[in-house]
Amino acid sequence: MKMTTIWMGALAILSGSANAAQVYDSYDAFYAAQPGAVFGAPIEQDADSIYSLPGEQGIYTHLRSALDGKTVRIDVAENRITVNGKTYRFARATTFPGEYAIDIDPASARVFLARGTRIRPSLLCLEGDGSGSGEADRHKQIFLLLDPLARNAAWLHLPSLLSSCRAVVATNYGRFAFPKNSYLFDETQESRIGLLVSYHTFAHRRFASVPAPKQVRLRFTHPEIPFQFSVQDKN
Question: Are 112 and 178 in contact (CB under 8 A)?
Fold first, then answer.
């Protein structure tokens, strides 16, 4: 009887562990675990990646990689990125409603590449830290270049709140989707207790919800502290 009780207790513990929601302390880890995640690791930097130019203020980040069998040379400045000699200024990107472009610290820049497939083009994504105060650490400046080696590549500025280039996912329609995050509040509407992750896409020169609306609800381990969380609900 005693042994049976011990086994039942052990099974209850294992069952509880299996059903417990995974706790994340990294949004990159959460986004990388989502179905259809497009980007893996960013392009590696080396000791010569950060440079400056004589007679000019500021620094630059230089990166080199390959995409779809072609060499890609990338230079990131405070207000622009240059890809194989073609410059894309942050202020000229097609911007998601409610967002606005600000300069970034080139040393903080991470650049991701994703090869094209039979049904969608290749992608380049840049993220970096912008200047700011208050809750600036909760925002990333994120820019997406569709078909970056094409003559007329689409240049987009994506939502910044608790997001990442790794948040971009491929859809079943040969397109891509990305989250627009918003806070969830407690019953008194005074304390932020979670995050609503709502996916959007870009098609026909405009931003829109994905054809089948997809949302994920995250719950913070501690109210008002969004850097440790678990998945509460998906639909």
Answer: no
Contact (Cβ atoms closer than 8 angstroms) between residue 214 and residue 199: yes
Q: Name which of 129, 8, 116, 7 is nearest 66 in CA terms.
A: 116
The amino acid occupying position 2 is: K
Return the sign of the alpha-carbon dihedral for residues 174, 126, 78, 129.
positive
Three-state SS at 26: coil
Q: In what order do the strands lie in the sheet with 86-89?
A: 50-51, 60-67, 70-76, 80-83, 86-89
Which is nearest to 47 in space by CA: 98, 107, 100, 91? 107
Given the structure tokens 């606005």, which residue do they identify?
100
Task: List the pLDDT tens digit at each of the 235 positions of the chain.
Answer: 443 433 333 333 333 333 468 999 999 999 999 999 999 999 999 989 999 999 888 999 999 999 999 999 999 999 999 999 999 999 999 999 999 989 999 999 999 999 999 888 999 999 999 977 679 899 999 999 999 999 899 999 999 999 999 999 998 878 899 999 999 999 999 999 999 999 999 987 899 988 766 899 999 999 999 999 999 988 7
CA distance readout (Å), 85 to 6, 50, 195, 210: 69, 18, 39, 33
| Alpha-carbon distances, residue 97 vs 39, 124, 147, 159, 181 (angstroms) | 24, 21, 22, 8, 13
